[in-house]
Amino acid sequence: MTTLISCRRSSSTSLIHLFATACCTSSPRQLRRCKQCHCCCLERVLQFGCAFSVTSNRDANTVFDAVEFVLQNFTEMNKLWVRMQHQGPVQEKEKREKERVGKNLHVLSQIEGVDLDMYKDIVLPRVLEQVVNCKDELAQFYLMDCIIQVFPDEYHLQTLDVLLGSCPLLQVYAAREKNRIYIPRDRYLSEEAEKKAMAEKIERMELEADSKDKKNLEETERSLVDLEERQKQANATIKEKELSSQQEYLKLKARYEALQRSQRNLMGEDLGLLSSKELESLERQLDSSLKLIRSTRTQFMLDQLSKLQRKTFSQLQEEKSSLLQEKIYLTKVIFIYKDMNNENVEMICSKFVEHL
């Protein structure tokens, strides 16, 4: 497989030395300490325009060596730049912020041998590690912006979870100052503490809700088990009652059919199908039935006669009482009439005496 990288025309085994000798006037110690030397080295590397072809396994390792060199250079330059942020007058910080530490990232993006796998496995983890560990707000904000700008968008889409996972580890003050949003630190810490307390409270409430839901679920399951057991018992009881009702129905049906046959036999029907014993039994039944009918009839007549006697006696008593009352009334009338006659006789006698 052929991998193209931007470098100076030379042998494949001396690529690292090309990067090291790009700034031949600077010693390794000066390279670590002097930021201008780092920038000079990167500018010379970026000026190489020839394409170099790597065709062997030994030459393929040069891509990894180049990436490693640029990452180390990025680490040292980032440390130096962070230290310089806290030196000199305040008005010069804006100027020092614009110093291109991100040239290392630009170099990494220009190496054609850096594919998605190398970016995902080597470049991005190392760069994010330095960004998080620098603990400088402005540097973190600037470097994250450089990462997003210099590398392709498809790389960001494939490593979006890694980028988002590193965001909570960054300092938040740089973004606030960049956007001119100023919140007092005490207020911010208080709000963060309240948010954390609220999150813990929500978590506790969720745990309590889960516990209550689990308890309710267990109670519901127990209730369902009890209901299923009761349903089984009810089904067994219903089956027993159905069986008993069916047996009772069969008994009543047999008895009803027997009564129907007996009625037909008593009416003189279907006698030809009976045996002599059955006929004798039927005769005895008829005799007993006749006796019962006669006794019932006699008893009925006696009851009717008794009722008639009681009714006649009652009527006689009523007539006797009525006659007695009439007798009393007539006696009174007779007495009154006699009194009236006596008075009339006396009056007549007195008038007669007076007349004499």
Structure notes:
By secondary structure, this protein is mainly alpha-helical. It has a domain of 179 residues. The chain contains 13 helices and 2 strands; from the N terminus they run βαααβαααααααααα. Strands 1-2 form a two-stranded antiparallel sheet. The longest helix is centred in the middle third of the chain and has 82 residues. The chain is elongated and about 180 Å long. The N terminus is likely disordered. One of its GO terms (cellular component) is late endosome. It holds the Pfam family K-box. Keywords: Coiled coil. GO terms for molecular function: DNA-binding transcription factor activity.
Low-confidence stretches: 1-58
- Element order, helices and strands? EHHHEHHHHHHHHHH
Taken as a percent bin, the fraction of beta residues is: under 5%
**Strands, count:** 2
Radius of gyration: 65 Å
Q: How many separate helices?
A: 13
Distance between the termini: 193 Å
Largest sheet: 2 strands, antiparallel
Strand order of the largest sheet: 1-2
- Calculate the mean pLDDT score and round it: 71
Share of helix, binned: over 70%
Question: Globular, elongated, flat, extended or rod-shaped: what is the shape?
Answer: elongated
Query: Pairing-aware structural class of the strands and helices?
Result: mainly alpha
